[in-house]
Amino acid sequence: MVFWISGWVAFAALVCGPVVLARMRWCDMYPRVAIASWYALGFIGWSSLATLFLAIATAPVNASLWQGIHVLIRGFLKAEPLKGLGLYEAVGLTLWFDLTTLLVGSWLVGALQLRRRRIRHGELLDLLAMSDSPFVDIDIIDHEVPLAYFVPGGSGRVVLSRGALQSFEPSELDAIIEHERGHRDGRHGLWLLPLTSMTPFFAFIPYARMAPVAIRAHIEMAADDVAQRRGSLEGLCGALRSASTFGLAPWGTMAWDGSVVERRLAR
């Protein structure tokens, strides 16, 4: 029974669920609820898939899943993890171990790599940032191409280029600044890390492909909501219409750019 239930739940959450959720129009109106829904879908799906593999591995134990897990643990403690398991059950145990290792390992490796990149970028900002910034909490770099982005990590850093300061009306510039501050205050960098790190390993699963893209879009919309509350709707819309003029920001940052602009304006 556990085998079939966990299998169907995993299929629904990791294969069918992302397709359905990506088409829900309410997600753009309530980005934080949408982000929570994507994470809930992933938690249910990955947990069910792990349970499925455990159910396969514990099939020889004619008892409940928890009793079967207890038997497997005793086997591990006795250095006999495969004792009493046939090929079918050994494959299930191997798949469970591989899934757990990839999910946890990819997150740890991705977190370490991203942390190194951000530390390095922070060191560069310390060298390049102008000392006469008009904003206490914003780093200004001397670059003529409009740039605006947030560097996650620690308390985070909001970065603007001189070109951005000179290219927009005050209300539009305020919207851009509050948008990036919204990323910082909401600690949006933490929302993406668990998903982007696993994508290379599970790209064949719809959830692993679709969730990072959807959540990144909803994070931008959540930051737009902050900008609208702290500034003006007209300034935000004007800044969004000009988003395509911005240059590319460094990898691993959250940039003001032309991503999902039509959907963001439609909101």
Would you give an account of this structure?
It is a single chain. The chain is mainly alpha-helical and 267 residues long. It has one domain. It has eleven helices and four strands. A hairpin with a 5-residue loop joins strand 2 and strand 3.
Q: Any descriptors?
A:
267 residues, mainly alpha, elongated, 66% helix, 11 helices, single chain
Which stretches are low in confidence, meaning pLDDT under 50 for 5 or more residues running?
none
Category by helix and strand content: mainly alpha
Total helical elements: 11
- Spatial ordering of strands, largest sheet: 1-3-2-4
Query: What proportion of the residues is helical, as a percent range?
Result: 55-70%
Any chance you could write out the topology, listing elements then pairs?
Blueprint (H helix, E strand, L loop, with lengths): L1 H21 L3 H4 L1 H27 L7 H13 L9 H42 L9 E4 L6 E4 L5 E5 H6 L2 H16 L3 H8 L9 H25 L2 H9 L12 E2 L5 H6 L1
Parallel strand pairs: 1-3
Antiparallel strand pairs: 2-3, 2-4
Helix pairs in contact: 1-3, 1-9, 3-5, 3-9, 7-9, 7-10, 8-9
